[in-house]
Amino acid sequence: MSFLESLQHIDQSIFFFFNQTLSNPVFDWVMPLITSPITWIPIYLLLCIYLIRQKKIGIVCLLTILLAFVVVDPLTSRYLKFAFERVRPCRALQGVHLLVECGVGQSFPSTHAANSFAIATVFSLFYRRLALLSFSCATLIALSRMFVGVHYFFDVLGGAIVGVCIAYFCYFLAQWTIKRFNLDSNQTVNQSPT
To answer: For the chain, what is the radius of gyration of the CA atoms?
Structure first.
């Protein structure tokens, strides 16, 4: 068995562990809710309100999140997926426990994972005390993609890595812009809330 075949075997084994071994009536009901963007809209709206109320640091954080999202979403959904052209497990494998529509797009990387980890990373860089909560939510969203049957483990991992990398780039770009144009005379952008 070649190295790539070994990786593919590991990937499928992890996928089936989440998709079949851990399957139960509770997860079958909860995971489609977690994986749905509609579920998270109220949470993201509350996050926006919270950040706006934090004034300068919050608004900078919100703008950085928006920048990261604008970069990550099309990068993964339009470019990387078409570059790798990996077929989703719900189309490539037999016996997948499919809980949502399979979707017409490609599999690698997971845009859900990329977006959620980009948001979590930026938010955690600005508000470090909330990092555990942020990454817990992102991880839950990412893992839900295997539970519902539409992504492999490496799809989720790849998406998470892309999201984190782009988030760091956007964060440092925000810091550079603030310092370059002297926009941060009274408050540092990486302080944690008290």
So the answer is: 18
Token pair in block for residue 127: 């508000």
Q: Is 190 helix (H, G, I), strand (E, B) or coil?
A: coil
Q: Which amino acid is at 29?
A: W
Nearest residue to 90 via CA among 36, 145, 138: 145
Count of CB atoms situated within 10 Å of the CB of 82: 10
Provide the percentage of residues in the chain whose pLDDT is more than 90.
85
Token pair 């490539």 is found at: 92
Contact yes or no for 66/48 (Cβ under 8 A): no
| CB-CB neighbours of 91 under 10 Å | 14
Tokens 């760091």 sit on residue: 168
Nearest CA among 116, 111, 124 for reference residue 158: 111
* Token pair listed for 50: 């919270």
pLDDT one-digit tens code per residue, 104-146: 889 999 999 999 999 999 999 999 999 999 999 999 999 999 9
Tokens of residue 170, six digits: 């956007």
The backbone torsions φ and ψ at residue 181, rounded to the nearest 5 degrees and listed phi first, read: -105, 15
Which residue from 114, 124, 122, 40 is spatially nearest to 72, judged by alpha carbons? 114
